[in-house]
Amino acid sequence: EKVTLDPETAGPFVILSQDYKTIRCGDGNQNLPDASKRFTSNAAVLGSQGFTCGRHYWEVEVENEKVWAVGVALESLLKKELDLKPTCKGVWALQRGQYRTDRVPPDPLTVTEELRRIRVHPDHEMGRVTFYNTENMEQIVQLQTTFTEKVFPYFCLYALETQIRLC
């Protein structure tokens, strides 16, 4: 999929590239215009394209892998959670740090190598989100769910040195 980042959802700690393909963590002093969809207090951003049906995928590359999360989030969370974290219900994400999926409660994962390229693969009809290590196409984890609404690509950073790039 051709996924780009939605500048109207970018939190104050997000620095977006001009082509909306890369997210970096800033110091929180970004001069951003008001937007009703904007996250208010973290370094999260959504993709600009949402999905209501079908199978989709996108790949990300994580650089200076400190702490990050990638996955999908429900559209309705934009109306409720202006500080969307990967631990919110309605977010299905793989998080670096302890390599865990952030659903409530989180499940720890055992990953034997550093993840640099990740494929996020939501499937509305099958009700699942699958994460792959793109370097060897091994499945990292598959989360079962039931999507009842539109989902958006989700990205979040927690450290200044970290960067996520859409491939």
Structure description:
The chain is mostly beta strands and 167 residues long. It has a domain at 47-155: SPRY domain (Jelly Rolls, Sandwich), CATH 2.60.120. 2% of the residues lie in helices and 38% in strands. The protein is built from one helix and 13 strands, in the order βββββαββββββββ. The strands form two sheets. A seven-stranded antiparallel sheet has the order 1-2-13-4-9-10-11, with no helix packed on it. The radius of gyration is 14 Å and the shape is globular.
Gist?
With 167 residues, this protein is mostly beta strands. The protein has 1 helix and 13 strands, in the order E-E-E-E-E-H-E-E-E-E-E-E-E-E. The chain is 2% helix and 38% strand.
Which terms summarize this structure?
seven-stranded antiparallel sheet, 1 helix, mainly beta, 167 residues, 13 strands, 38% strand, Jelly Rolls, single chain, globular, six-stranded antiparallel sheet
- Strand residue content: 35-45%
CATH structural fold name of the domain at 47-155:
Jelly Rolls
CATH architecture of the domain at 47-155, please?
A: Sandwich
CATH class of the domain at 47-155: Mainly Beta
Query: Major sheet: order of its strands?
Result: 1-2-13-4-9-10-11
CATH superfamily of the domain at 47-155: SPRY domain
Computed Rg: 14 Å
**Largest β-sheet summary:** 7 strands, antiparallel
The rough form would be described as globular
Task: Give the topology string: H per helix, E per strand.
Answer: EEEEEHEEEEEEEE
Question: Helix share of residues?
Answer: under 10%
Spans where pLDDT lies below 50 across 5 or more residues: none
Structural class: mainly beta
Average predicted confidence as pLDDT: 83
Number of DSSP strands? Answer: 13
The termini sit apart by 10 Å
Domain B30.2/SPRY: 1-167
Protein name: TRIM7 ligase
InterPro entries: B30.2/SPRY, B30.2/SPRY_sf, Butyrophylin_SPRY, ConA-like_dom_sf, PRY, SPRY_dom, TRIM/RBCC
GO molecular function, one term: ligase activity
